[in-house]
Amino acid sequence: MNEIKVFFVAVISAIFSLLSPIKDYFHAMIVVFVINFLCGLIADYRSGGKWSMKKAMVFFYHILVFSLLASSIFVIGHFMHNREEALFCVKTLCFIALWFYSINILKNLRIMLIDKTPMWNLVNFLYFIVSLKMVNKIPFLNDYLITNKAFEEEITKPIFGNNTGGISNGN
Prior knowledge:
The protein has 171 residues and is mainly alpha-helical.
């Protein structure tokens, strides 16, 4: 039984050693996830919501998915002998995730704060800058948002001009 423990400790140590170049990115993203969780929880309470274990589990799910995605990118890049490019990909992934989560955090802060106070105005201004002006600073993000919006409109628009089953009502 002791050999099994030693084996698992060795495997986990090897994995952590392999991922050590991206540990700072993980720490930063965990801070972002925690801030997002706390702001979302407080904003939900302020809006009259109640504690939901399902919403709380989404926090852990997001951390797990992000960690697996970033780790996979780095490990695959490492084994393809492109460690620097893999590190750049993880860094870019973190910045993109930071942008999306920052918008959500600022949106929740706007809900938490009292309207039209100086702090609300500051957060509202930051929300404006991050959500609208920073789009051009992240490569391909503006294209993604435009394409995604057009795709959503394509999906939600009705297939036929009227919903009368093909019978025109003379209009």
